[in-house]
Design a protein that fits this description.
Number of strands: 34
Number of helices: 5
Distance between the termini: 62 Å
Helix content: under 10%
CATH architecture: Beta Barrel
Shape: globular
Number of domains: 1
Largest sheet: 22 strands, antiparallel, barrel
């Protein structure tokens, strides 16, 4: 049977025609008077217009990630956290991982400091990363480049399965990164950062109108950075340019074109040390966090380019069509020599003095091409006493990867207490292995209001996926995922809810050692929660209790840390408490507590986590603009048997700033007391250092 092909450009046109037809028909078949009457009959749902402007403070009112519509968070029957741009700036976030340090339900730095990617866990699973509602990374970190927080307006964290809307993802949910977009108000910013590990960064953000009538808007975001890291011989250099252009011919129509070019030159801060000398005793002492046991010339170099658009047209007050598309190309050149404690974790050394650690190497050149498109039509209408906000959509993803790789276990050992970096030439890479995946999903969602208080969100989606591997037969899979939520929204601001959702993840690729193809990952979750927003206050409280089940998740292969294998069924349950916003006119806060239980098949999952960050604004000598921030992060001890227990840790972060409205000076210190700690010691034999003290001084000028 012939295989169908998904071609992005014709598909985009077809989707536009197919999904705008009902709305266009509704628009052309009514007279103006009929349209006004229909609008009156249609719905009383609030229509919130979001233009992509930055949220002031720490409290966001709405998040598209939860429903793909402009729905208030207080009316969404699922846990969601928004990390605002102001919060990222105040906390001095240097990565997405940093930005999520104080996000409820999130285990940031789950696998320690890693220059290759942002490793986070939500409810014990790895979330899917999206950028502007489209998938950003695919299956493995080499499919993308780390997104710089300076190019982001906000981060939306949807906790729990989201496959009904997005099609691909674990029970963790999604982390949706929202890019800065062109604004109608002129604003130009130039900034400089210097700090620990010889960090030197120049960044710029220009936006405003190109035409007098505001029809054309632009934005230019750039980052130029040279930096080392806390690990010897590992740099963190970046060149980033992200221009965007918006065309708004009228109030009902907008088209934003976004481009991005990024070049990262780094290495691997993950050295894969064994337990001995880190958590377990070693007669030679402790291994320092800055120790490097790779080889000269090791690198992790990434080049990424993307192009895409976001289109929206509002036919009338009740019908809107939207389309988003992005094409991305990613190239990675990866060479890393690292420790091999996996064969005998309790005594990995090859000498009786316990100094010489075996090593192995992983080498790869990867090229990834990915196209995403999401097209949907939103309609508002009424049937009897029920107000509807219905969403009908179709999305598609095409992923292609060419990867030449080599795993070499014949690397000379190294003295981890006094390393000598000898020359080592790996064997030549093999021929590239070609893999691909094509996915199409059709989804339908209805947000219903019964009277003044009751809200129901119901949705269903069907996905078809084709996986291809050069030299092997194609594999076709399909799945239907569902979502159902019930909420009572009270005038006083109280909103209890109950929800059920499912996840489905078709996994591209194979196990690099066995050649076995990955099977789809599936899961489901039940969640009960309560949200509260006091009237007239920029403040919110939330609580959620959940139980989720998942099967076929990818976990690190204990025989080779650079590859994955699939686990069986897992079960996780927990409770999350969160507060965020403005407590007083001069004090902002974000705080959370997470409790998680799992069936001990999951690593990097402490039972207790808590964090609180507060910022106080004040005057000195009658002059405003001063602020001080302080945060505490706590993680309880946990086991990843048979590894030693990963100890509990409490970390402190601090900030001082002065903002005149034109100039802003800020001093940020993360891990204020410079604690030596570990994010995890894994049962397979290795330990991962956490980030040591990082001091950053930034100055920006706005005009």
């Amino acid at each position: 049977m012939p295989r169908s092909r998904i071609t992005p450009a014709p598909l985009a046109v077809a989707l536009m025609l197919a999904l705008t037809a009902p709305a266009a028909l509704a628009q052309t078949s009514s007279s103006p008077d009929d349209g006004d009457a229909a609008a009156d009959r249609a719905t009383t749902l609030d229509h919130v217009v979001v233009e992509g402007a930055a949220v002031e403070g720490y409290q966001a009112d709405s998040a598209r990630s939860a429903t793909k519509t402009d729905t208030p968070i207080s009316e969404t029957p699922q846990a969601i956290t928004v990390v605002t741009g102001q919060r990222m700036t105040d906390q001095g976030a240097q990565s997405v991982q940093d930005a999520l340090n104080y996000a409820a339900g999130v285990r940031s730095e789950a696998y320690g400091l890693d220059s290759r990617g942002d490793w986070t866990l939500i409810r014990g699973s790895s979330p899917s990363e999206y950028l502007d509602g489209l998938r950003n990374a695919f299956n493995y970190y080499t499919s993308s480049a780390r997104t710089d927080p300076y190019m982001l307006e906000r981060i939306e964290v949807l906790r729990g399965p989201a496959s009904m809307l997005f099609g691909q993802g674990s029970t963790a949910g999604i982390v949706n990164l929202v890019s800065k977009r062109p604004q109608a108000q002129t604003r130009r910013e130039i900034g400089v950062q210097v700090g620990s590990f010889d960090r030197r960064q120049l960044n710029a953000d220009f936006t405003g109108p190109l035409s007098d009538d505001g029809t054309w808007l632009y934005r230019l975001v750039g980052v130029y950075r040279d930096s080392a890291t806390q690990v010897d011989n590992v740099d963190d250099d970046r060149r980033l340019f992200a221009p965007s252009l918006t065309w708004k011919p009228n109030e009902a129509t907008s088209l934003t074109v976004q481009l991005r070019w990024q070049r990262d030159r780094t290495g691997s801060t993950s050295q894969f040390f064994g337990w001995s000398g880190l958590l377990a005793p070693n007669p030679n002492g402790r291994v320092p966090a800055h120790r490097y046991i790779g080889n000269p010339g090791d690198h992790y170099d990434t080049d990424r380019s993307t192009a895409g658009w976001s289109f929206e047209h509002r036919f009338n007050e009740n019908w809107t069509v939207r389309q988003s598309f992005r094409a991305a190309r990613n190239k990675v050149d990866y060479a890393s020599v690292y420790g091999n404690p996996f064969l005998n974790p309790t005594d990995p050394f090859i000498d009786p003095q316990q100094r010489l650690l075996p090593r192995e190497g992983w080498f790869a050149k990867t090229q990834v091409r990915m196209q995403n498109i999401d097209q949907h039509v939103e309609g508002r209408f009424r049937t009897g006493a029920i107000d509807h906000q219905m969403l009908l959509g179709l999305d598609a993803v095409r992923f292609k990867q060419d990867e030449a790789q080599l795993f070499d276990s014949n690397v000379p050992p190294v003295d981890i207490f006094a390393p000598v970096y000898t020359s080592y030439t790996p064997p030549a890479l093999g021929a590239p292995v070609k893999t691909r995946q094509r996915q199409v999903g059709l989804y339908l969602q209805d947000q219903m209001k019964f009277g003044e208080h009751w809200i129901v969100v119901a949705g269903v989606r069907h996905d078809r996926v084709n996986n291809g591997l050069a030299g092997a037969a194609d594999e076709d899979t399909s799945a239907t995922t569902k979502r159902l939520g019930l909420m009572f929204h009270d005038w006083a601001g109280w909103s209890p809810y109950l929800s059920y959702s499912e996840s489905f993840t078709p996994l591209a690729g194979t196990n690099a050692i066995t050649g076995a193809r990955y099977t789809p990952q599936k899961g489901e979750q039940v969640e009960a929660g309560l949200k509260f927003e006091p009237a007239g206050r920029d403040l919110s409280f939330s609580a959620a209790a959940y139980e989720l089940r998942e099967e076929n998740r990818l976990v690190p292969d204990p025989r080779n840390p650079n590859t994955n294998i699939q686990a069986g069924k897992t079960k996780v349950s927990g409770v999350e408490l969160e507060v965020g916003g403005r407590l007083t006119e001069t004090f902002d806060i974000t705080a959370h507590y997470n409790y998680l239980e799992n069936d001990r098949q999951l690593e990097a999952t402490p039972r207790h986590q808590a964090a609180v960050w507060g910022k106080q604004r004040f005057r000195i000598g009658g002059r405003e603009g001063y602020a001080a921030g302080l945060g505490l992060r706590y993680m309880s001890a946990f086991d990843s048997l048979p590894a030693p227990t990963t100890p509990a840790v409490t970390l402190a972060d601090a900030m001082l700033s002065y903002d005149t409205g034109v100039w802003r000076w800020a001093l940020n210190v993360n891990n204020l007391t410079d604690k030596r700690y570990f994010s995890i010691c894994m049962g397979r034999g290795d330990c991962w250092f956490g980030a040591r003290r990082n001091i950053g001084l930034s100055v920006s000028y706005t005009f």
